[in-house]
Amino acid sequence: RAALDAAKSHLRDYLIARGFEPDKNMHCIFHSPDAHPSMSLLPDGRAVHCFACGHTADIVNVIAQLEGFAPNSKEAIERAIEFAGSATSPSTSTRQHSTRDKKVDFDAIERHIQFALAHFDETPCRDYLKKRGFTDDDLDTLRQFDIGFDPIHKTLVIPHGYKYYTARRIDSDDKQKRFIFNCQAPVQIFNEPDLFADRFAVTEGPIDALSLICAGFPAVALGGSSTQSMLIKKLQSMQTKPGVYIAFDNDQPGRDAADKLKTRLDKLDIPSLIIIPSDHHDFNDFFKEDRSGLE
Known about the structure:
By secondary structure, the protein is α/β, with parallel strands linked by helices. It has helices at residues 2-7, 11-17, 59-67, 74-88, 106-117, 123-131, 139-143, 206-214, 226-236, 252-267, 283-289, 291-294, and strands at 39-41, 48-50, 56-57, 96-99, 102-105, 148-150, 155-159, 165-169, 179-182, 199-203, 219-221, 243-246, 272-274. The strands form 4 sheets. It has a 4-stranded antiparallel sheet with strand order 6-7-8-9, covered by helices on one side. The chain has a 4-stranded parallel sheet with strand order 11-10-12-13, with helices on both faces. α3 packs across α4 and α8 (206-214) crosses α11. The termini are far apart.
C-alpha cells in the first residue's frame, strides 16, 4: 500500500515520459476526438481531470488506459509501482539501461510500439499517409517496418532497430514541432538491413527513406546528426563496401550535411554520390509529386 501511495506522486513524471506536457492542458486520453485539449494535471500532481468528459484518473488508471491494462487492475498497479521505482532508484534492472544518465524502460517502449501498431489502420493515420504520397498498395510495405499510429498524441510511430522510435505528429509540418518526442533510448539508424545492399540511399528522416523504399530503392535514414558517425563505423566494418547515395534535403543544412558526409566517405574510399533533388525539398516531396519520375 505504501509503495502504491508513493507511486501516485509520480504521475507527472510518467506523463512527461509518455510525451505529454503536464504544465499545459493535454488532449484527453479517455475520450476522442478532443479537438481542444481538456485534460489537466490537478494541483496536487496525483491525478488528471478532463473538464470535457469529467474523467479523473490517478497514475494507475492513466497507465491502464495508455498501456492496455484493465482499470485498477493488478497489472496496472504493478506497472505504476515499477515506474515509480525506476524514477527514484539508482539501480537498473536487466530491462533498463542508461543513456546520458537517463534510465530507459525498454518494456514501456515496446508497449508503446505495440499500442501504436494496433491503431495503424485508423482513418487519421491512413489520411496522413495518403497525403504523403503512400497508396493503399504501399501499406503492406509500411507494415513490414512495424509503423503504427498513436491516436492520443496524433503521431506516426516509426521504430528504428531495437526498441527505439520517433513519433512524428500528423497535424503539424512545422519543423520545430513535427516530432513531438523521441523515446529516450539510444538513437539508431532506420532500416539497417539495407546497409548490406549493393547500393542504398541515406536520407535525413524515415519518411524520405520509406518513400524511396516504396519506389523500389534500398534506403536508410539517419534521424539525427549523431548517427552519421554510427553509419561511418558500420560501413568501415564491412568487407565489401556498398555504393552510398546521399539523399538529404534540398536546403542549406541538408546540402552542408551531405557535403560533410561525402568528405568522410571519400577519405575511407567508400563510393558515394550526392543526389539531392533539385526541384523538390526532399525525396518524400519528389515521391508524392512525381512518383513515376522517381521510380
